[in-house]
Structure formats: C-alpha cells, structure tokens
Amino acid sequence: MRWIVALGTLLLFTACQPPPTSEQGVNNSDPNVVVWTHDAQTALFRADIVGGESDFRAHNIIPNCTIYGDNRIVWLNELGPFQIEVREDRLPDGAISAFVQYLTVNERVYTFDALLPEVEQQSEINPVVETVLINVNGIDHRADSLGGWDRDWFPRVLNACKKLSQTPVLVAPSSGWLSAREIPFSPQPPLVLWDSAQMGISPASAPPDAPKWISGDGAASLWHTLHSLPSNMIFEDGDHYYEIALQVPGVTRDAPLAPS
Predict the structure, then answer these.
(1) Beta pairing, strands 83-90 & 129-136
(2) How far apart are CA 184 and CA 243, in angstroms?
(3) What is the average pLDDT across 91-109?
C-alpha cells in the first residue's frame, strides 16, 4: 500500500513537466526512484530509426541517441547530407532518473508496443521505423512507431534525449571491428580505393563472420570515409569489390565488445 501511495505521489509530481535537462535532473529528481544496470555495454535508453538497409550495412549505423548503463550518452548530430557528428557526454544519475520519469509519465512510453517484429514475420518488406528501448527497474521495454504514437512523439523524445548533454565532446573513433562483404562491381555507387598499406589488412581477410579488430590512423580514416560518403559506396581492392563495415563498441549499433 505504501508503494502505491509513493508511486501516486511521484506521478502527480512529475506529470506534465517539461523535458528535463542534465542540470535540472540533478536538482529535481531522486535517482533512487529509477535503477538500472551500471554497465558500459548495456543501453538503458535508445532512440533509433531502423529499416531500409541490409543487415550488413546496418553495422555502420549510429543510433540517434543512446544512454548507456555507465551514464554515458552518445548522440548523432546531422549537419547535412552525408555529414554527421557523433557526440558524447556523461550524465548525473539524477538527470537519467528525471528523463526516465519524463518518458514514463509525460510521454507514456510503456503504453506503446513494438510491432515491427510481427510485421517482419508477415512480410518481406523492410520498413523504416522509429524505435525506442528503455531498460530500467528490471524491465526491458521496446516500442516503435507502428505501435501508435503520433508523428511528433519520436522527434520530441529524441530532442529531449539530446538536450540532456550539457558538455558534449566529439567522438572520432580510431579503432573498431572491420568486416567486408564481397559484391559485384556497380558503376553507380561512389568507388573508394582500398589502401592496404595504410590499413595493414586486406578486406578479404575480414569476412562478415570473422571481423578483425583494427586501430590507428587507418581505422580513423576509414571511419571518416564511411560517414562522409553515401552508405552504398564500394571499396575496390585489386580486382575485387567490397562493402565495408566498421563497428565501434559503444558507438555503432550492436557492436561487439572490444578485445580484452
């Protein structure tokens, strides 16, 4: 009974409040109301747009905004066509707690479901869908735009997530998991010459089922290329042509852990 009363008090206090900022969260929220796994690889919140790409090309995608269990926030700043910045910051516990309360009460995140898996089972169409996940208080909840939110809901939530960051820094990875998929040549996509001397590795030695960890200037240059040209670019290495992915732990979607 006391738990119900406490929850009711929380709902009355937080209802219809504006989205919190990191600074406001420190002052106005009790971090003990919301608990999560404090793990650097676990996303406690993510706003992402999925679909419209192959499973392989999806390895290069950076979700729009992710809060990790170690309080690190990583978000995407789109400057223009094929021009992006990735930024990161560290959030206080209170800011995260206030944001989760905002999602729960103001945005009713738990009233929406994830219907994309059902659609994918019934059709071969790969629709582009807005998605969110929230994993706190022992509940891993996922929802998507097929579940009924209005067209302003996702942009509003995404903007609130990004605004949590008060002192962001630029993310410029210089290491990650390289994988390559050989494809036929096509004259339409941009063609990039693979520099084996700089990379220290050939694409053929990093197939999709056995990615290789790379680091240094070559990895940094590859990251810049992958995120400053159209995603359908082709890399040429001799007489062979490849799609390339560079998965960076804590940055790109579903990247494996870095080697120990």
Answers:
(1) unpaired
(2) 10
(3) 97
